[in-house]
Amino acid sequence: MSIPAALPQIVIRSPGSLGHAAEPHSFCGTPASSKPAIGPRPPASGNAVLGSYFKALFAAHGPQHWWPGRSRFEIIVGAILTQNTSWKNVERALLNLRSEKLLSLRAIRDVPTARLAACLRPSGYFRQKSKTLKTFVAFLFARHCGSLNRLFAIPTEILRDQLVGLRGIGPETADCILLYAGRHPVFVVDAYARRVLERHRLAHPKATYEQLRATFESALPRDHRLFNEFHALIVRTGKQHCRKTAPDCSACPLAEFLPRSGNSPVTIHHAPVTPL
Questions:
Q1: How many domains does the chain have?
Q2: What are the tens digits of pLDDT across the range 169-215?
Q3: Distance CA 247, CA 233 (A)
Q4: How many Cα neighbours within 13 Å face the side chain of 175?
């Protein structure tokens, strides 16, 4: 993904002047609609500071070029395989699929489940993940004629409901597929994002996935490039600084926003902020 040099400027536009999510892309070289839907949005209030978080991370690390994948379908496969495992294990499974020439919709549809599961073994839960891949591909052929173009032309919320309704695909996986493969403006809330929010007192530990997603989406312009880059930067921060154990806060680009500095005025969307 090519990140425009002016991307950080996206976050300083007035939320009240922005429309709702832009129309999904058709992937035929032009957007499905030439103009985004325009409508009023409530002000982001204190949550607007998340824009400062993004700018600090982008200034420190630059573009992350996410999601890794040679095609939209490979991105979808990776989003499913990364559940409950490390990306290194996913890469091993993807290498197996590539070696067996199975990284295509028709190949996954036609391959025996046992052979597919054997290729996915490095990713863990390989039997379940093989069934999930089969389920997704069957859904795509049955509902959308095997076309990712048709799939991603569906309005975001409708498509999200369809994906979450599939066996083995939860909200986080669905949002990864929508954002990274479909370029729909939905924010992916993973363990790293939750950890950053909680440690900065921006989220209650019992906040739901949807509440955390709303926290990001209500605070930022609905732009898939911004959501893509911000999530990737959060993942890097979680791995490099905001680790589950032995966090390295002093060298983190977000250190200035820690609650003790008094520079974190964000309030949780739909959930109260209380001391952890």
A1: 2
A2: 999 999 999 999 999 999 999 999 999 999 999 999 999 999 999 99
A3: 16
A4: 19
- Report the b/e string of 22-32 with b at 16+ CB within 10 A: bbbbebeeeeb
Check residue 6 and give its pLDDT. 55
Distance CA 130, CA 1 (A): 28
Instruction: Centre a 10 Å sphere on the Cβ of residue 171 and count the other Cβ atoms it contains.
Output: 17
pTM for the model stands at: 0.80
If asked whether residues 95 and 162 sit together in one domain, one would say yes
- Is the same domain home to 59 and 79? no
Residue 266 included in any domain: no
Tell me the residue range of the domain where 171 lies: 72-181
Residues 214 and 156 in one domain: no
Residue 60 φ then ψ, to 5°: -80, -35
Which residues are CB-contacts of 218 (< 8 A; sequence separation ≥ 6)? 42, 44, 47, 269
Give the chain's residues under pLDDT 70: 1-48, 261-276
Residue 187 within any structural domain of the chain:
no
CA 197 to chain centre: 16
Q: Which of 123, 154, 181 is the last residue of a domain?
A: 181
The per-residue pLDDT for range 119-148, each reduced to its tens digit, is 999 999 999 999 999 999 999 999 999 999
What secondary structure does DSSP assign to 97-163, as a single string? HHHTT--SHHHHHHS-HHHHHHHHGGGSSHHHHHHHHHHHHHHHHHHHTT-HHHHHTS-HHHHHHHH
